[in-house]
Amino acid sequence: MKPLTSVLSLAEALDCLTSPYALEEQSALARAGAFAVDLDSGAGDPNAERIATARATLAGLVCPSVALCRGDVSPAAGELLDRFDVVAASEAEAAPVLATASRMPIAATLLAQLLRLGDGLGLHDALVAESLVYSTLQAGPEFTAWRQANPPRGSTAASSGPAVLVDRSDDQLVLVLNRPERHNAFSVEMRDALAEALYVAASDASIVEIHLKGAGASFSSGGDLAEFGTLPDPATAHLIRSTRNVPRLLAACAERVRVVVQGACVGAGAELPAFARHVVASADAYFQLPELAMGLVPGAGGTVSLPYRIGRQRTAWLALSGARIDASTALRWGLVDEIAS
């Protein structure tokens, strides 16, 4: 693979980060893409003040920061490692992140800022922040361009049966996403039905276990694209997400929730299960966050649930790269707890 372009050496990066104009010069408004640094390159022995300034600047950059780190790094690089938004082990890992940041700089920047902010917020506040960022991007030029290039196709009519099957047996509650013909695309109807069932579970302590599954070949292919951008306005959409919030309800019941996933676990299909106490994946399951390609960020709680399980930097890589990971990788990272035999 050809070496990546526009990647700074560590010495060059320190010069940029310690400049009083760093936030202006490294903003997505002033330059394309991300602030990318090869941490394997030398930087001498910078003093503690210079490193501290660089750390503080990295936390406030108005663009994503990407560290290329192929192995052991110098002490100076090690001091900065945790402040980067993404840490890539190779050029192949970094390339799709930089490509997305160049193509969708607004969404990429807001994702990085949201994940940084989430480190210091509680669950409720982090979900509110995610919804506010999502709503902001719905009104932005990147999502508008994507929506114009991808107009809704097909009918959003309800399935022949209920969008969520609900079965209560003694102290067990079984919830099944039931749009198999659409790979359980997460529609408004499905959201409302799942929220209604989870409201009952959250208020009924006699329900000891909640089992969440998906009918058909996939757990969920993510948000129903035919419904994207169809609400009256982004502000109202935020109020609806704040009022009827499936991620918040899942988190409230998390210790009692067991999720079984298979096939496509995309967008909401990856984000919602991550709130549960225990996630079992079939061997054919794969996980993907495609929202950045649409000019959006994960909007089903993924900027909260995934960092809890796999960390901020891996979450950022998954969202910015748009890459799929398989069940074995998800198990190794901690996104799932078990692979069904």
Topology diagram in text:
Elements: E1 7-9, H1 10-17, H2 22-25, E2 35-38, H3 48-60, E3 65-68, H4 75-80, E4 86-88, H5 91-103, H6 105-118, H7 123-138, H8 141-149, E5 164-169, E6 172-177, H9 188-203, E7 209-214, H10 234-243, H11 246-252, E8 257-261, E9 264-266, H12 268-271, E10 278-281, E11 286-288, H13 302-310, H14 312-321, E12 325-326, H15 327-333, E13 338-339
Parallel strand pairs: 1-2, 2-3, 3-4, 6-7, 7-8, 8-10, 9-11, 10-13
Antiparallel strand pairs: 5-6, 11-12
What this model shows, in words?
- This protein has 341 residues and is an alpha/beta fold.
- The protein has helices spanning 10-17, 22-25, 48-60, 75-80, 91-103, 105-118, 123-138, 141-149, 188-203, 234-243, 246-252, 268-271, 302-310, 312-321, 327-333; strands at residues 7-9, 35-38, 65-68, 86-88, 164-169, 172-177, 209-214, 257-261, 264-266, 278-281, 286-288, 325-326, 338-339.
- Helix 5 crosses helix 6 (105-118), helix 6 (105-118) runs antiparallel to helix 14 and helix 7 runs antiparallel to helix 10 (234-243).
- The longest helix has 16 residues, at 123-138.
- It is globular.
- The mean pLDDT is 91.
